[in-house]
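Work Package 3 (structural annotation) set out to generate three-dimensional models for the target panel prioritized at the project kickoff. During this period the team completed the workflow that converts sequence records into discrete structure tokens, so that structures can be stored uniformly alongside our sequence database. As a representative example, we reproduce one entry of 533 residues exactly as it appears in the project archive.
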Amino acid sequence: MQLDIVELSRLQFAMTALYHFLFVPLTLGLSILVAIMESVYVMTNRPIWRQMTKFWGSLFGINFVLGVATGLTMEFQFGMNWSYYSQYVGDIFGAPLAIEGLMAFFLEATFVGLFFFGWDKLSKRAHLVVAWLVAIGTNFSALWILIANGWMQNPVGAQFNPMTMRMEMTSFYDVVFNEVAQAKFVHTVSAGYVTASVFVLGVSAWYLLKGRHVELARRSLAVAASFGLASALSVVVLGDESGYNVSHSQKMKMAAIEGMWTTEKAPAPFTMIGFPDQAARETHYAIHIPYVMGLIGTRSLTKEIPGIDKLVAQAQDRIRSGLIAYDALMTIRENKGNVPAAVTSKFEAHSGDLGFALLLKRYVDDPRQATPEQIAMAANDTVPTVWPLFWAFRIMAGLGFAFIAVLAIFFYQTSFKKMQYPRFMLKLAVLIIPAPWIAAELGWFVAEFGRQPWTVDGVLPTALSASSLSVTDLALTLAGFVLFYTVLFIIEMGLMIKYIRKGPYIDVPETDRWQSEHQMRLSAHHNQIQPAE
């Protein structure tokens, strides 16, 4: 029954996180694109760029509001669904989460209001500063969330206190500059830039197909193609860096993504395609590319990447080591204030493996009573289900390279073909609008599902992290969240489609506007030089 509670808690958090991340990438990317467009407006003073800023800014605003609304629920879920996790690691996890809250609700919310209501109250340069502060605040809000998440993937700057039975922070610097967190941040925001670029590209292409708002669409498409191509290329480079970090901080995740059941001779090949079979511990019909995995995972031709079989054997060793730490911990707890130095030394020597001993809690109340068979089962639990990770990663990577190809073609047409776009290209741009969201959701699935069976990798098993709720409680709240978030998603889609169909607030061709303004200036000058009657 406890396992059912854990699985329902995981499903509930997964649903809310995936719904929330439907809004996040577009918010991250549009904030930068809107700031770029307003920068061009301030530099050139051409009204078409102000019109573009306002139009894409309105779509950013819709997405921003719903992103905040869906994100609030996730933070409360840590206390509601994962109370033991919150108690166990709250001293570390709570700090970046609190800073993110300040960034989101003070910096972002304040300047978002100034952005939308300050057009006629602020100077052009002051409003431009506001636009960039919105973009910076939005991206830095994501930074702190990813610092918190990165610590769950690579728990540095903290240690377990046997007296309080909690993880406690030892170095805020190490938590903030965690290599996994920093790599995740730049990779995630770059993916958001690609999402927004493909969105702007697709909507602009739709306008060109319909022959509407042509001047706005052509310029928007040019910005999206250039910014998007740079972002898509950076996603690949930064994704490679993330893969390198995973190869030495989460070796089991790397082996599962690759479907590497046995340790390959260095340099390991990359499995381009195949059909992982968890029961047989084999990937059927695999097609390999020599050396590539070794280069990605180790940056060398001589270092070995351990396979699942070797990592399971290492997990058994770490469980046995963790049992020594667990036994010393129980002695410390029973003899508070009078703990022999040898016991303390024993705990400190093996405390890094304590989390592995806790994996046995699934099979036996007192891990010290575990049988060799139970130790073997707990070690096998460290292997996540391979085939979803294997395919999710490859679909995500394939989409990433597809975005590079599409954006490169549009960039070429924009730069060297005088913005002449064949109709099939415009139709393709419209069709691929949903693709970046698919890639982003798959990326989060790989990151989070690949961490199982851990909530905090190597420290706290997911099976121990959940609150003491009933199955009925979780089923009802899960249904409620799905219903509520589906309604919000429908509202989001309805508003976005409505404003896209409506188009910009002022639909005047740029040439006509400049002619009109020129005539007005001539008329004013003519009136000034007329003699008084």
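Residues 23 and 63 are 6 Å apart (CA to CA).
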